[in-house]
Amino acid sequence: MKCLVFSDSHGSVNGIRRALNMHPDAEVVFYLGDGLRDLESFIYDKSKMWIAVRGNCDFSALLGDGMVKKTDSITLLGTRIFLTHGDLYGVKYGLDGVMRLAVDHNADIVLFGHTHMPLEKYVSTENGGYYLFNPGSIGGGLGSRASYGVLNITEQGILLSHGSL
Description:
The protein is mainly beta. Helices cover 12% and strands 38% of the residues. It has a five-stranded mixed β-sheet, covered by helices on one side. A five-stranded mixed β-sheet has the order 6-7-8-10-9, with helices on one face. Strands 4-5 form a two-stranded antiparallel ribbon. Strand 9 and strand 10 (128-134) form a beta hairpin. The longest helix has 10 residues, at 13-22. The model has no long low-confidence stretch (mean pLDDT 94).
């Protein structure tokens, strides 16, 4: 199952459009906040599952016909995924908060944004381990290129990668 991961568009609808056009086979799109309004023109595409959380710059909790939470979780093909923008867990100051989140929620993957910097990290534990994954900012800014994440969940395992625009 191919998933796209976006965060921090901050008005860059074109960045989202370009990444979606580059990956038409994506079945799921995760949006990690700071630009919920930017998704409005895309979320009615029913060929994809849309899962979003709101960030510290999202002043409305409404998207389409529903409310958007600050954190959410889903299990896809047996893979437990927890998503958050990251501001609630201090990700600009370190990864301890999202690492605790992974353990507390028994997550296989924690998706987060907020820093605008791409990150892929595997943390090994006694019980296997988990991934921390930040797609960077699809809107660019803060000295970084526009980037997004690609998450592939297969029978063989999890493959994470970053793309840039």
